What we know:
Elements: E1 5-15, E2 21-30, E3 33-38, E4 50-52, E5 56-60, E6 62-64, H1 83-95, H2 100-116, E7 119-126, H3 129-139, E8 142-149, H4 155-172, E9 180-182, E10 185-186, H5 194-207, E11 211-215, H6 219-229, H7 233-239, E12 247-251, H8 257-265, E13 269-272, H9 274-279, H10 287-292, E14 297-299, H11 312-327, H12 335-342, H13 344-349, E15 366-370, H14 382-388, E16 395-400, E17 403-407, E18 410-411, H15 416-432
Parallel strand pairs: 1-4, 1-5, 6-7, 7-8, 8-9, 8-10, 11-12, 12-13, 13-14
Antiparallel strand pairs: 1-2, 2-3, 5-15, 15-16, 16-17, 17-18
Helix pairs in contact: 2-3, 2-15, 4-5, 11-12, 12-14
This protein binds ligand LTUXU72L and zinc ion.
Zinc ion (ZN) binds next to loops.
EC number: 3.5.4.28, 3.5.4.31
Cofactor: Zn(2+)
Domain Amidohydrolase-related: 59-402
Amino acid sequence: MNNDKWLIRNGQFIVNAPETSVVKGCMMIENGRITYIGESLPEGEEETPFIDGKGLLFMPGLVNTHGHAAMSLLRGYGDDLALQVWLQEKMWPMEAKFTSNDVYWGSSLSVLEMLKGGTTTFLDMYDHMDQVARVVQESGIRASLMRGAIGLCSEEEQAFKLAEAVQFAKEWNGQADGRITTMLSPHAPYTCPPAFIEKFVQASYDLDLPLHTHMSETAAEVQQNVDSYGLRPVAHLEKLGFFDRPSLVAHAVHLTDEEIAVLASHQVGVSHNPGSNLKLASGVARVNDLLKAGVTVSLGTDGPASNNNLDMFEEMRLAALIHKGVSGDPTAVPAAEALRMGTEYGARSIFLNDTGTLAAGNKADFIALDIDQPHFLPYSDLISHVIYSASAKDVAHVWVDGIQVVKNGESLTMDEERIKSEAQAAFEGLLAR
Ligand SMILES: CSC[C@H]1O[C@@H](n2cnc3c(O)ncnc32)[C@H](O)[C@@H]1O
Ligand SMILES: [Zn+2]
């Protein structure tokens, strides 16, 4: 933990209360938490160590609420395919060959990309999760981790996967100085028989941990659910008690009005993954209607093999653009709302209540953008610029828990050259096996 007290002076800070706006002045950090943001230097702090924020825009770290980090090894391996073909013919055969070493280097590559691009918290659903947790420990990032379980196997294998998921969730919750939290995650209703999902719901009660799953990503999947169980995925999961638990669903592209009301009434969060949904031609989620119904909608990249990068600025921009385009309503998902989806709502979606905004009392998870660049001028509306003009490349500095992990665009905690060469070797090893 960081026990320093220090200040940023002469900076510009995006705050969300009482509304999303920019404050010019100072921010103070003590013991890894923000203790002050305001226009003037707090009294008696003239001698406190500080960094000069001139030319920088400080904002909350981005929160990526759905992904599979190790799939960076499969980036570019299987493009331009629909979800089921992509999964069954390209991803799953390769993933069957993944070792712990592959997951370690693939996740390292993704965490390096995420930190350098301003993501300070990510959700990860995968296998060999001890390796992902190790990467989180070493890199200094914050994460919500879970062993994803596909139940298209024998009951014996299902029991083994559930036991692994429970063991991982118990063992790692609160580790890495509290930066790791855990959830429980059956992969999807189309890959997990109802009785298997019910076991995850029971484990969620037993461990007092939230649930996460893929849901209603494609029209074909919704139809398959109706054919198999006589219900669409929302009613199916509701019947299995999934939504009686704190839960987050990824994608939720194909929803009816009634289903949106069900998600809202159970306070189910939705991780909207616009880049992945567009690339896999899954459709466009009803984000405007979800937000209007009071659903917490956050943003995720999904895995790097269906996106194909982990740039959360791109996801915020896509969210702000595509819902205007498909609705014909230029007021749909305004810039400030897209920004909250990428930060505040992200933290809320994964049940973190003291990160996601720059506010006194919150964890000091924040980033600084270099706004002394042509595409940020004129300084008319910096919130607009963050959504419509910025990209991951503009991130100069990153702090998590008040500890700097990226400085002048370079990682301070991860060995970039080693990670790139090991990831390339891991990919070649997968091709050769
Ligand atoms: C059980 S580990 C996670 C599992 O999820 C697969 N996956 C990656 N992206 C998607 C997606 O968009 N929809 C459904 N499943 C996805 C990944 O390949 C792993 O097998
Ligand atoms: Zn996914």
